[in-house]
Amino acid sequence: MFEEEELQSKRNNNLRQSKSLIGSLSLSLSLFFFFFLCFFQSFQSYGPRPCRRFFFFTVHHRRFVTDEQIGPRVLESKEMAARSIIRSFGSLTALGRNSSPNFSANGLSSLSSDLKCGMALLSNRKLSTSILTPDSSGDAFPYDLLTKKTLISPERTLGQYQDLVIPVTNFQNEDKGFMVLAGDVFDVPIRKDIIHNVVRWQLAKRQQGTHSTKTLSEVSGTGRKPWNQKGTGRARHGTLRGPQFRGGCVMHGPKPRSHAIKMNKQVRRLGLKIALTARAAEGKLLVFDDLSLPTHKTKNIVNYYNQMDNTKKVLIVEGGPIDEKLKLATQNLHYVNIIPSIGLNVYSILLHDTLVMSRDALNRIVERMHTPINR
Fold first, then answer.
1. Please, which residues have CB within 8 angstroms of residue 16's CB and are 6 or more apart in sequence?
2. Which of 55, 82, 251, 346 to pair with 374, CA 20 to 30 A apart?
3. What are 43-63's pLDDT values in tens digits?
4. Do residue 171 and residue 277 come from a single domain?
5. Alpha helices of 103-173 — where are they, by DSSP H?
6. What's the pTM value of the predicted model, to 2 decimals?
7. pLDDT tens, position by position, 188-241
8. What Pfam families does the record point to (predicted)?
9. 186 and 329 belong to one structural domain
């Protein structure tokens, strides 16, 4: 009798262990199918690189690209994926509830029915998705979580050498896409001492240095002694071309010379990068697809200038030869100046509070900044 009770207890223990093993196996299979379907849907929604774009989280290569600039299709896909995952968790919970009750004697039949129920829920998950809108119902994914920030946030830390994304437009305020600004040119640490030294070097070097005065030997006139040394009662003089006489020479006066001071090429280049970084950080750097105008009328530039906020002087930078219509349209405006990209300098950037550059000019400047310095 005692042996029969011991055998019955062993059978109960084995049955209990088999039930727990079957329950854990069913849960593992359910999780495996859930994640497989989620991965497959993200592969269909975001292209052949799901390792970088998984579920509704998108890893962007550039830092300052917002959800508004990704595109409506990608946003819809992200919202659809988010809602699908939320519903999948609900179906998974239902599946867990169905698989958690006590097993009957026939554990395999219960497992197969639970798996069929879970597979049906997971297979229909793709058909139950919808596109979210701001007017969606309360159970939708919260739309305010999709942040709407400016393209270049003023709260960002400068000098991190991070690439920036800036919109491209034209004089008609048309959207021409976006352009990436190199971080090693447009996001360098601000150094006021470098700017001071570069401006000082630039102003000193641009001095002509053609000032000249005549010495005693260069002044025209006779070299005869004007009167006798003694007997006249006047002061003694040996010439009338001295510095004390009208029309005479200038002693220790300026002569033609160069006022240029020495400055390393690396420091000059760094000064230009700092000036461009300052304008980009202030939001005063505008990139145009091209600088073409329909006519040569000055009102084309005046109308665009009136639409700009907090702008006093504008510097337009052209990549190649300056367009004749643009030149004629701006020659009567003292607050708008044009310069080719090869002549862009620190002093001109600081003299104008707004910088307008063409796409070609921007590429040329970045190429110039990346060119190795000849030793």
1. none
2. 346
3. 555 454 444 443 333 334 334
4. yes
5. 107-123
6. 0.56
7. 999 999 999 999 999 999 999 999 999 999 999 988 999 999 999 999 999 999
8. Ribosomal_L4 (PF00573)
9. yes
